[in-house]
């Protein structure tokens, strides 16, 4: 089984990265990230040498799970390289970004808890001048 870590600052809301349900089966296992809640789920692919804007949201928390290759993570003042299988909790209002300093595209599963609206993104720094 892949070991997972929850990193990033804590907020007044619970970290759902700690609440992932894992069920063992004869054929292997499954991880259940959320049950019967309104969420938005995305898979984000970050190309080598690129990163998303440094941003924050006022209306949602996010949980990321790194899928393929190590991904550069920044949440508030903490920076690290998250490994495949690692979970990251991004509380509402936290500044955050992800990037890929590797040589292969990297994917993350993102689950957004709360009101999802792309207009809720406040970009603090953006390599693409958006």
From TrEMBL:
Keyword flag Isomerase: yes
Any single Pfam family the record assigns to this protein: MannoseP_isomer
Signal sequence bounds: none
Mannose-6-phosphate isomerase type II C-terminal domain boundaries: 23-126
One of the record's GO molecular function terms: mannose-1-phosphate guanylyltransferase (GTP) activity
InterPro entries named among the record's database cross-references: Man6P_isomerase-2_C, Mannose-6P_isomerase_type2, RmlC-like_jellyroll, RmlC_Cupin_sf
Top-level lineage group: Bacteria
Isomerase in keyword set: yes
Any single GO BP term: GDP-mannose biosynthetic process
Keywords, alphabetical: Isomerase
Database matches in PANTHER family: MANNOSE-1-PHOSPHATE GUANYLYLTRANSFERASE (PTHR46390)
Protein name: Mannose-6-phosphate isomerase type 2
Organism this protein belongs to: Oryzihumus leptocrescens
């Amino acid at each position: 089984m892949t070991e997972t870590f929850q990193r990033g600052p804590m907020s007044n809301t619970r970290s759902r990265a700690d609440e992932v349900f894992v069920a063992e089966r004869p054929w292997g296992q499954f991880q259940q990230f959320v049950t019967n809640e309104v969420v938005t789920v995305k898979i984000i692919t970050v190309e080598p040498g690129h990163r998303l804007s440094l941003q924050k949201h006022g209306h949602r928390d996010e949980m990321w799970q790194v899928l393929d290759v190590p991904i550069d993570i920044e949440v508030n003042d903490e920076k690290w390289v998250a490994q495949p299988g690692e979970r990251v909790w991004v509380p509402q209002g936290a500044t955050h970004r992800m990037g890929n300093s590797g040589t292969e595209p990297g994917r993350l599963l993102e689950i957004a808890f709360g009101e999802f609206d792309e207009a809720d993104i406040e970009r603090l720094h953006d390599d693409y001048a958006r």
